């Protein structure tokens, strides 16, 4: 990506809260998915081409590993994790979601339209 973009401009363009973006930027910066520069002409930029950054990269940098139910996390959410038959279905669904996120890059998102849904 060429140049730096200010959080304020991203918030306006995407119609989301500036404060929310500031919080997201912390995780993205820690994961080296974005870089920042202070001052006039500063802001945020991608250190890699958008085609090399997956949606999974962004999601995991923002909220951690993807677990659609607690029992798939590192700390099981209930006492029935080992015997729960529904857990198998949740695992399959979670794996498909992760693969979907892994298969879409920021460049793909830029070119997607509502008709791709």
Give a written overview of the molecule.
By secondary structure, this protein is mainly α. The protein is built from 5 helices and 2 strands; from the N terminus they run H-H-E-E-H-H-H. It has 2 domains: 1-47, Arc Repressor Mutant, subunit A; 49-117, no CATH class. Helix content is 45%, strand content 5%. The protein has a two-stranded antiparallel sheet with strand order 1-2. It is elongated, with a radius of gyration of 17 Å. The mean pLDDT is 89.
Distance between the termini: 26 Å
Average pLDDT figure: 89
Largest sheet: 2 strands, antiparallel
What fraction strand? Answer: 5-15%
Total strand segments = 2
Uncertain stretches: none
Q: Note the run of SSEs as H and E.
A: HHEEHHH
Number of separate domains: 2
The proportion of residues forming helix, as a percent range, comes to 40-55%
Biggest sheet: strands side by side, in what order? 1-2
Name the overall outline: elongated
Radius of gyration: 17 Å
- Structural class of the secondary elements? mainly alpha
Number of helices: 5
Overview features:
elongated; 117 residues; 5 helices
Task: Outline the secondary-structure elements.
Layout: H1 7-14, H2 18-30, E1 35-37, E2 43-45, H3 55-63, H4 86-102, H5 106-111
Antiparallel strand pairs: 1-2
């Amino acid at each position: 990506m060429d140049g730096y973009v200010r959080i304020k401009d991203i918030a306006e363009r995407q119609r989301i809260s500036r404060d929310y973006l500031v919080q997201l930027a912390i995780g993205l910066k820690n994961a080296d998915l974005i870089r920042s520069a202070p001052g006039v002409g500063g802001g945020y930029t991608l250190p890699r081409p958008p085609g090399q950054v997956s949606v999974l990269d962004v999601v995991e940098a923002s909220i951690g590993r993807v677990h659609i139910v607690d029992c798939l996390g590192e700390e099981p959410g209930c006492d029935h994790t080992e015997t729960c038959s529904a857990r198998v279905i949740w695992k399959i669904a979670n794996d498909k979601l992760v693969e979907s996120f892994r298969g879409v890059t920021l460049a793909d998102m830029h070119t997607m339209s509502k008709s791709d849904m």
